[in-house]
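Re: your question from the hallway

Yes, I did run it. Sequences:
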Amino acid sequence: MKTTEASAPVPAESGAPVVKVDAPAGGPPKEKKEGTFLNAFSHGMLVLWAFMVVMPLLWAVMTSFKDDKSIFSSPWSLPDKLHFDNWSRAWTQANMSDYFLNTALVVGGSLVGTLVLGSMAAYVLARFDFPGNRFIYYLFVGGMSFPIMLALVPLFYVVNNMGLLNTIHGLILVYIAYSLPFTVFFLTAFFRTLPSSVAEAAFVDGASHSRTFFQIMLPMAKPGLISVGIFNFLGQWNQYMLPTVLNTDPDKRVLTQGLVQLAVSQGYKGDWSGLFAGLVMAMLPVLAAYIVFQRQVVAGLTAGALK
Amino acid sequence: MQHGKYRFIVGFLAVPLGLYALFVVWPFIQSIYYSFTDWTGLSPEFKMVGFDNYSRMLDDKIFWKSLQHSVLFALLVPLVTLGLALFFAFMINVGGRRRKGGPVISGVRGSSFYKIVYFFPQVLSIAIVALLFAFAYNPDSGAINSLLRGIGLDSVQPLWLGDPNLALWCVMAVLVWSTVGFFVVLFSAGMASIPADLYEAALLDGANRVTTFFRVTLPLLWDTVQSGWVYMGILALGAESFAVVGIMTTGPGGPDYSTTVMVLYVYQKAFRDGQAAYATTIGVALLVVTLAFAAVVMRLGRRERLEY
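Structure:
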């Protein structure tokens, strides 16, 4: 199922005769009575919800440009002038630049690792028969429905004993491990849909299994990799629970953690405008990327639930 | 394709499986074992204590509160979220005015705009959303109360997160706010794949839109709704409620334990109070609740699969 047909909700290609009303467009609508009230109601509700979604975001953007005094005295007024100093203060003094860098490092490393390792495991599980195949598959997939917090208590000590606590590479390894269940689940289904004839031809021509995988199958699986990549990117970029438990060093904080910490410490310092600038700073790149890659993002995030 | 097959399989599976076993499977097994010990997490020494932690848990009032709240999260948040999402998705895709010469059913004008906007919260981190709403709920300077003052409701100034009777609902509302859009888009995709002739048949039989929704759309969409419910419930029991309750409420989990949830209680017991073994016991209870929830939803929702 495609989720991207944003503007054409009703597929008319089924060949079914579409009932046409005789009068050409422009005439007074015959069935006005039935629709008018419901139509107004549904439009009203849709507009209201759009409003409720956008208002808090706009409010945050607006607040990030105000000084501290007017944030408290008049939360809904427009800023008297654009206080860009909030933004620069957040970027430098409140360490937002460090948080961005840490997040980019962790997500960059774990996204590549998740896709490489996830597609390797998924390919083997989808394409090869061997004893234990089903067991390993369900071992991976089962991880999707287990409460992660249960594992986090011992995991903290596992990671600590390996000397990986509060390190970027330790966090990367943990992110990869917890992203594998969905990635393997999704990509296994995807590799099953690819035709096997191409891989067989490559194999007959003397390519090894791993060469077949990297040069033939992986390029063919690109759409699936993009979908699951977007899904993992957003999940890992927005991750809060794993770093809260496993990454307690103030210098290594990722964006979400840093902002929460900032909210706590700004409570003492009273620099609310700086905090709002930080919040908006963290929100905007993701929102902008979403608006640009809207179709791909929606397809990536909903793909799993539709399989 | 037999040549070197097993060497290849082992080579490809070893690293992902090893990583997964070490960081996911092994800690799960360990935590069930730890729940039968008196391990503090601080010292490496501990001994077996049998079911002591479990009997202690059954006497723990805060545990029962957190259980109650978690169950409420798993049932109510998906119910409201999916209900709203179904309504919006139906309006967007089927609720439009019948236009002359157009298809027999159509979405409202601007349907793609709504889908883009509704999806906004889904791409933001739940932690950022929680922070934002923590400020919006602020009784003195927050956006909500000042909006109420602005429209003349000076007497209606709730304490929101500060009120033990309101705080839990405030937190749940944030979760609903942040996830409705995802399901609107998901259900829209499902509705788009329902053949138009089914709607036509219903309309020819004189069905109005409410009947059409309950007799055509919902039954054909049931599988998606059901898996959405399980997905949402697991999130509401786990990571999402950890973030919203942990970030938004005082304590966190307050005021007066009125918002505490199991996943937060596990975290606090393990990493704040140094009672790792007891924390894993609550974690095991959370596992049981999660699996029971999934089983119940799958069972209650079982219907004849409709092919179309």
